[in-house]
Amino acid sequence: QPGVDIKGKAxxxxxxxxxxxxxxxxxxxxxxxxxxxxxxxxxxxxxxxxEEGEDDEAVEIDMGGAAGLGGLTxxxxxxxxxxxxxxxxxxxxxxxxxxxxxxxxxxxxRRRINGLKCLQSKHTELExxxxxxxxxxxxxxxxxxxxxxxxRAEIIQGKTEPTDEEVAAGxxxxxxxxxxxxxxxxxxxxxxDDANITGIPEFWLTGLKNHAGLCEMITEMDEEPLKALRDxxxxxxxxxxxFSLIFEFDENDYFTNATLTKTYYYQQSANFGxxxxxxxxxxxxxxxxxxxxxxxxxxxxxxxxxxxxxxVIKRAVPNETFFSFFETIxxxxxxxxxxxxxxxxxxxxxEADYELGEEFKEKIIPHAVDWxxxxxxx
Length: 378
What we know:
Layout: E1 48-52, E2 58-62, H1 66-72, H2 75-78, H3 81-93, H4 101-104, H5 107-156, H6 164-177, H7 183-191, H8 203-209, H9 212-217, H10 223-226, E3 229-236, E4 242-249, E5 259-268, E6 275-281, E7 295-303, E8 310-318, H11 340-364, H12 368-373
Antiparallel strand pairs: 1-2, 3-4, 4-5, 5-6, 7-8
Protein name: Nucleosome assembly protein
InterPro entries: NAP-like_sf, NAP_family
GO biological process, one term: nucleosome assembly
């Protein structure tokens, strides 16, 4: 499975001159050309185009005059989608084929181009080193962040209280962000001294539900076990580039696991040296009897034709739940090819999975309190 560059998606739309295609060694469109938007500056040398459709019905388009020329950019092609599809398909079949442009250049020019390729190769090596060192820098700063994350977890879980200095600094930050906060709200909060409250209840559940993507994943049934979520940590992998998300849970009525993990692995892009997502691996959840949220049990009565006896058949049907996040998405074995629809579905699942892992790593874990308060939504 090729890597997915979640961080580098913006590069796909870097050019403002997408309509211009200069002479290149592979001078074919990256995507199917929008036929109806092309402008034709010369009168075609043929009187028309005849297409044999699947139903053997001939479609003739007159291209002999000015009206025909106008039709190339509008009405004619808009009304003949089969012809558009045929031409786009033929253009698509040219993708990646050499245009002969480089081969037609003078030998001295081709020699210089080969020299540039050498320089580009050296540049790519430096880019690869750059991205490897960025990963090492991330590891270094995770070690610096860790004491803050540990103190955060202790406060959330009620193991310690913030110092007066920390509280004062937090109040100051709040006043800067919300200078017109109603005074009665602050006064009410200061007078609400419930000694029975420990830590910050449902901290992670609240923060996750404030995230637009995760909010859609979390069902009503998921909320009870997620109330037991104590902390979410990140650890970088040692065997190969990547990281693990570690979800720590208090004892609960749903599963026996103290931790659930999701690990993501990187591979290095040969073109730009980026570390892109290669694969991910989930974990098994040890569900307690009758508490598996990933399936629902459907019951069906079945009557035997001969004996006329009735029996009840139970069948486990997959169920939508946040905890499906911890599944390992199955990918085909080497040499096994999927059809286009299956491949598109797999690609969509993998990309969504990688994006969610990136959200946890880059946004949710580092800025957990902002997701809890809703500041991250501003």
